Structures are given as C-alpha cells and as structure tokens.
Amino acid sequence: MPPEQVLYIGTDISEAINRTRLYDSSGEEVGRGVESANDLPGSQRLAEEALRRAARIGAVEIRWGMEATNLFWWHLACFLSTHPDLVARGLKLYTFNPRVVAKLLESYEDLGKSDWIDAMVIADRLRFGRVPAQCYLDERYQPLQRLTRYRRHLVSQLVREKQVALGYVCLKLSAYGLEQPLSNTFGATSQVLLESYLTPDEIVAAPLEELAGVITAHSRGRIAHPEDVAKSVQRAARRSYRLPKGMVEPVNLVLTSSLQTIRTLGAQLKPLDKTIGAGARRDPAADDLDGSGCGAGVHVRDRCRDRRHSALDSEESTAKFAGLTWRRLPVRRVRGRRPTAHQDRQRIPALLLHRGGQLGAAPLPGVRFPLRQEVRRGDPPPSSPGAGAHGSQAGEAGRLHAASGRIYQPQGASQRT
Questions:
Q1: Phi then psi for 10, rounded to 5 degrees?
Q2: Are both 111 and 173 inside the same structural domain?
C-alpha cells in the first residue's frame, strides 16, 4: 500500500510579494513556483492554487511553512488558518524564525541566496520533520499579545531613557546619587529640584525654607520632614563637582528633555495597563489567577485543556510553550570545583510576567509543573532580561523558583505588583 501523500509548501514572505514552492512527500516539486501579491486577492489565488496541486497528487494533508518576517506574515497566516477548504484538506501551518531558515540554508553549500531558494528550504524543513508547534492564532489573545508586546517596548524605552538621564544627573549634581535625598530620582519632587536649579551653587545659595517649600508643594505632603530632605539636597550640592561654564546650559537642556521623555513614556503606560487589565478580566478563566490579571496564564491553561491542540500533550511541550524551559549546554569541568551544567537561558515572555502573573494556583489536570523534573539541585533558576514586563523589576520578578514553581523572590524581599 503506497504511503499517503502530503503536500509540503514553503512561502518566503516580503512586504509586497510572496514566493511559494510546493513539494510532494518524495521531495519532487509539484508544478512551478507561485508568485503572489501579499494582499487579500493574492492570498486567495495562492490558496486556490495550493488546493489544485493538493488534488493533483491526492494529498491527504497540507503542511505549510513560512518565515515570520516582521509582521508581513501575520495576515497571510490568519487567512490560511481560517480558510475552510484548506482546513478541510488537513492544513497544518508552521512559522519559522528567519534565523532558523538562514542556518538551514548554510547546509546547502551549492545554493545561493534568493526568495525562491528560501521557499524551497522552508518546504524541506517541513519534510525533514522535528518541526515546532503549529502556528495557532487565537483571536481571544491576539489583542493581549499586541498590547503586552507594545508595553514591553515602552518599558524598554523607559529603562533606556532613565539610564541616559542618570548619566546627566551625575554630570549636573554628581553627589545626588550618593546622598539620595529622595527615594526615587525620577519622582515628581526630585524632577522639579533637578530642573529648577541650573547649578549646585544655586541650590547651596537657596534658602532652606524655599527648598522645603518646593519639596512640600510637589510631594503633596507625603514627605514628613521636608527640612531634612532640603538639608540633604544642599549637602549633595556642596559635595558635587562644578561644571565648566560652557557645559552648564547643554547639560541642563539634555537633562530637561530626557526627564520630559520619561514623563511622556510613563504616561503612555497607564492606559495600556488599564486596557490589558480589562482584556484579561473579560476571560472568566482569569478568576483562577489570584487576581493577577495575567492573560498568558489563561492562554497556557486553556491550550492545555483544549484536546484539539496535541502540541501541548506533555510536560516538556507545555513548559516550552510557556517559556519556562531552557536548553542545557555540555557540562563544564573546572579544576577544584564540581561539574556544573551551564545553561542557555531562554527569556520568559513578557506576557507571562504582566503584573507578576503566574500560571495559576490550581494545577492543571494531568500536567505537573515541568521545572520540578528538569531542574537539578544546584542549578540556578532561569532568568529574564532587565527590560521585561515591568522594566527594571523583571530582573527580580522574572526568575522562577525551581522548587515551588512560583515567581522567585530573594530572601527578605516582598512581592512587587
């Protein structure tokens, strides 16, 4: 009995034109390559051509792969995954990181580099097997995904801008960070002090009552002893280096601009947080998340419970989908120390870290927390880069405790929200 035929399709994506090649199970190309516009009419013609060639070889399944290039692939993936005739033909859709395609292309020594060759390599990748999980664009979570990714972008920009501003604070008032008169350098009161006085000499010359009045007015009465804070500010000014006269105006101009940018970015986060929280609360499963409002936890949980998606049928696949696993590198032996396994740590998606969300207190039926088996005693927990869902907080909140499966907290630290 001959094996069942599968149609393998590889599509190279660009903003204007998509180039597609189609192959059968033996690796023989089925017809010529298809060039289609990256718009709705072009995608409709591409789907019809794929169905005709699947019928030509009697394919019982269509496996379609494409490069996830920028967001040019997104509309085509949504269109194909919801096309009723393709779904009836057993469509399985996969997306590949362009780096994966580039690495595979390196193994084809005699081939050059073109869109048609990339499409062939993508189709070959499907034929070889060991493909990633299918592309599953759930309409319930796409809005949350867009919002949380943009929030992460804003937080990354905010962290970077604060780093720039701190450098100019050091130039203008070098001892300000040493004295730390206020707990938050970027709080409203601190920003007013940094912008209102051009030089350390002006702060030293200002009456103590004037400084205390500024502190009281802009702290809204939250500082119990404004005179003590004013004295600390003047101490920082006395200890600070003096800038050359030609540097005073440029440093103040850049610092003022940077602080304004920080305020603008911070203001943009508030409506985003409100919309993200509202979107998470609309899902009734969010009640299982201890009020954290973490849409990603709901997403992982729903996919584990949805038996249609066999890609999450094991602990390993569940952990990988949630971003909670990392590759283990070879054991390195160092003289005088016991062998340790060095790890290539994968970042935890910002969506999972939104508001410190967890996967939920109640365990999933039939799914144990994967880190219990995968992490050996003595291995460090996986970490997340500083520019995570909460910027500088992600360095602490982004580490998972391997034993308990919850957000890692250093001893004595309280949970940040």
A1: -120, 130
A2: no
Residue 315 CB neighbours (<10 A)? 18
pLDDT of the residue at 370: 36
108-122 residue pLDDT tens: 877 778 889 989 999
**340: CB partners within 8 A, 6+ apart:** 331, 332, 334, 378, 379
We report the CATH number of the domain holding residue 29 as: 3.30.420.40
How far apart are alpha carbons 277 and 98 in whole angstroms? 33
* Domain contains 330: yes
**Starting from the edge strand earliest in sequence, which strands make up the sheet with 6-12, in order?**
34-37, 17-23, 6-12, 61-67, 91-96
| In-domain check, residue 414 | no
Q: Which two tokens stand for residue 324?
A: 């909670």
Nearest CA to 30 among 3, 45, 46, 8? 8
Q: Which of 283, 304, 345, 366 is nearest to 136 (CA)?
A: 304
User: Do 301 and 381 share a domain, yes or no?
Assistant: yes
Is there a single domain that holds both residue 306 and residue 268?
A: no
Q: Which domain holds residue 110?
A: 6-128
The answer to the question of residue 411 being in a domain is: no
* DSSP β-bridge partners for residue 11: 20, 66
Residues 239 and 160 in one domain: yes
Please tell me the total count of domains within the chain. 3
Question: pLDDT by residue (tens digit) across 179-190?
Answer: 899 989 999 999
Q: How far apart are the first and last CA of the chain?
A: 61
Residue 410 covered by a domain: no
Provide the pairing of β-strand 61-67 with 91-96: parallel
Contact 387, 152 (CB under 8 A): yes
Helix (H) or strand (E) holding 342, with range, is strand 340-344
Residue with structure tokens 């590949």? Answer: 96
Among 100, 128, 156, identify where a domain stops. Answer: 128
The burial class, CB within 10 Å (0-12 / 13-18 / 19+), for 33 is middle
